[in-house]
Each structure stands twice: as structure tokens, then as C-alpha cells.
Amino acid sequence: MQFAHAGLPTRQKSKWWQHDGLKWLTIGLFSLISCYLIVLMYAQGEYLFAIMTLILVSAGLYIFANRRAYAWRYVYPGIAGMGLFVLFPLICTIAIAFTNYSSTNQLTFERAQSVLMQRQFQTGKTFTFGLYPTADRQWQLLLTPRTAASRCFPPPLA
């Protein structure tokens, strides 16, 4: 008794685009391009995007290349979309909230500390003010500098 193929019977593929060689060539090219893009993301410091791309591409390649995972082809786009557009931003938001890491915090601690210590605040002139009623039922603001005797009358306020 001989069991050559205990599973599904093989069918003859008549079209050129139905052969396994073309399928594996396409999967190989897609894998190489994806790996190149993932390495570029990782090299630029975008670790979360590189990990997310690696997970989505590897799961997609497995599901669409494996005949046993044929039923998952209908579920994968929904799960991938939920992971990419809901879970990934949620995880990134939580990571930024608890680590205070964002695009504005790209300096080392020592450099950020020196930048903050070099900031100076220069005060402008200080004025005392008075608010007086005018004859036509408006208000007049009187600004008087503390150091000089000159006065400033802006236009009346309604």
C-alpha cells in the first residue's frame, strides 16, 4: 500500500501564473524588499515602526503562502488593520506618556540640562496702571512706568 499524497489530490496547473516557482519568487522578492525597509527603519532609530512592520509582514507572508492557513486570509486584514491603526498608536501613546519620550526630547540628559540652564528670562518694563471713565461712557487706561515720569494713554476701551 502506497500513500504518496494523503492530503488533497494535486491538480495540474495550466496557466503560467499558477506555478509554484512564480509564487515563491514573488514571496522571496517581497521578503527581500520588506527586510530592506525594516533594516532602514531600524537604522534610523524607528524601532517601533520596524517591529510593527516585521510582525505584519511576517504574519502576512505566512498566512498567504501557507495552504493550511487559507481560512486566515479572510481574518488577517481585519486583525492587521486593528493592530496597525488601533493597538499600535495606543501603545505608542502610552509609551510616550510614561517615558516622556517624543521628538522634542532627542537630547541626552546632560545636554538637555545645559540647554535649560542657559535659558534666561529678561523682564520688560513694568508699569502701574489706572482705569478711568471718560465723558462718553468709555474707559481710559493710564500706564505709568515705575522708573520714568512719562505716561502712556492708549485709545479708550469700550
Automatic annotation (TrEMBL):
Which compartment or compartments is the protein found in?
Cell inner membrane; Cell membrane
Record domain Maltose transport system permease protein MalF P2: where:
107-150
Keyword list (alphabetical) reads: Cell inner membrane, Cell membrane, Membrane, Sugar transport, Transmembrane, Transmembrane helix, Transport
All copies of the MalF N-terminal region transmembrane helices domain together span 22-68
Show the GO cellular component annotation of the record.
maltose transport complex
Record flagged with keyword NAD: no
Kindly state a single biological-process term from the GO annotations of this entry: maltodextrin transmembrane transport
The subunit structure is: The complex is composed of two ATP-binding proteins (MalK), two transmembrane proteins (MalG and MalF) and a solute-binding protein (MalE).
Role played: Part of the ABC transporter complex MalEFGK involved in maltose/maltodextrin import. Probably responsible for the translocation of the substrate across the membrane.
Q: Which PANTHER family match?
A: MALTOSE/MALTODEXTRIN TRANSPORT SYSTEM PERMEASE PROTEIN MALF, MALTOSE_MALTODEXTRIN TRANSPORT SYSTEM PERMEASE PROTEIN MALF
Protein family per UniProt: Belongs to the binding-protein-dependent transport system permease family. MalFG subfamily.
The entry's protein name is Maltose/maltodextrin transport system permease protein
Give the species this sequence originates from.
Answer: Serratia rubidaea (Serratia marinorubra)
What gene is behind this protein? malF_1
